[in-house]
Amino acid sequence: MIETTVPVITAKTGSKFETVQNQFQTWRSKRPCRGRIPEYLWEAAVGLCKECSVFEVARVLRLNYKGLRDRVLKAGEMRVVKRQPDPRFVKLNLGGPIGSSECWVEMKAPNGATMRMSFKGASREFDPVELSRAFWRQGR
User: For 9-42, b where at least 16 C-beta lie within 10 A, e where not — what string?
Assistant: First the structure.
């Protein structure tokens, strides 16, 4: 069987991504049995990786991620996406155990009740979280 190279044609009405997706669907519907993906389709998929991530292209086009990634790396077309840290999460590095330290916590409930806690040193024989819960549950 002789395969011919078909250039990727970008439709004016749709995106390049949709065009390549349609080319894959057409090829899959017309092939007689499972076989190798033609090189022109691989090249089109690699070209999409300039604009989208390899994972996204592989998922949408139903391609083997590793196979596509290897081709993208070989072609030097890898798009590097730098992820920004999640602003809702703050990681605190407290290091090792703190020696002698002191902490004051003061809570005021809507009903006017106040609770003050003072912690000195590292060892505690009570659970301050449970004490706080008991304080907030009072008056319900």
Answer: eeeeeeebbebbbebbeeeeeeeeeeeebbebbb
